[in-house]
Design a protein that fits this description.
6 helices, alpha+beta, 273 residues, 3-stranded antiparallel β-sheet, 3 domains, 25 strands
């Protein structure tokens, strides 16, 4: 009887070491004999509520039942199978994991959105700051130069930067530029051989300043249109803009207006305060 107990204790000790090794390698969810019994068939196999999916066995984490147990990492539902509510708790929240809707679209999850030359969807990935890069839009060089990324028009609420319609190709695609301090030319500025300037550089413009044709904070287009700055306006440190029929499209002068110092119809010299 003593020998039998000794053998059992030795087997238990060996299995405990093996089990701990498997836990550290990410093969088991917890350091118990349950995770070793089925592998080595020494004792009857005990059924567990959730089991790891072999494809994701390299991820450091554990299986749990959502709503019954707590996870302080990333909830990855494809990582474990078993009872309803099974999920894998991935301890490293910086790891990006694709949801089925991303994988099915041949997408890949990324953390740096500017690494994606296609469509970004921030709801199709697990992990902090991760988004799915998938087919749907093609990012052009202008969007890349601005460190922007592509979204669809129904995703406008996801863009916390400047929305630029000319940077991405595809139906309902636009380029989201996170840095709102950058000046971006609209088509009306480009077609008039214009360049967007940031205030106070508006006084460097010898033609017409028009804030309607630029994107970005405190940006306006210096374009070749009706207005030509006179020496009087230049010497006063002013710039020219044109009064339009639609006031919402007229540049706003925050200084003093003079109607005599700019050539062209409805052109006004603005002398900054």
């Amino acid at each position: 009887m003593a020998l039998k107990h000794l053998i059992s204790a030795s087997v238990f000790a060996i299995l405990s070491v093996v089990c701990q090794t498997r836990v550290e390698a990410g093969k088991c969810d917890q350091p118990s004999l349950t995770c070793c019994n089925c592998e080595f068939k020494v004792f009857p196999c005990l059924q567990t509520a959730c089991g790891r999916v072999e494809e994701f066995s390299d991820l450091e984490g554990f299986c749990y039942i959502r709503g019954e147990e707590e996870c302080n990492g990333t909830e990855f539902r494809q990582g474990c199978v078993g009872e309803t509510g099974c999920a894998l708790c991935v301890l490293d929240t910086s790891i990006c994991l694709e949801k089925p809707v991303c994988s099915d679209a041949n997408g890949v999850c990324v953390q740096n959105l500017t690494d994606c030359d296609r469509l970004i969807n921030e709801r199709h990935c697990h992990g902090d700051g991760c988004a799915c890069c998938k087919d749907g839009c093609v990012r052009e060089d202008k969007c890349k130069e601005l460190d922007g990324y592509c979204l669809l028009k129904d995703q406008k609420h996801l863009c916390e930067g400047t929305q630029f319609n000319l940077g991405c190709v595809g139906k309902d695609c636009f380029c989201c530029v996170p840095d709102t301090s950058l000046c971006i030319e609209k088509l009306g500025c480009l077609n008039a051989n214009g360049t967007c300037l940031k205030e106070p550089d508006w006084t460097d413009c010898d033609t017409e300043i028009d804030s309607y044709f630029c994107l970005g904070d405190d940006c306006a287009c210096c374009r070749e249109k009706e207005c030509i700055r006179s020496d009087a306006c230049l010497n006063a440190g002013g710039y020219c803009f044109r009064k339009k029929t639609d006031d919402s499209k007229t540049h706003v002068c925050t200084g003093t207006e003079s109607t005599e110092d700019c050539g062209g119809a409805d052109c006004v010299c603005c002398i900054p305060a």
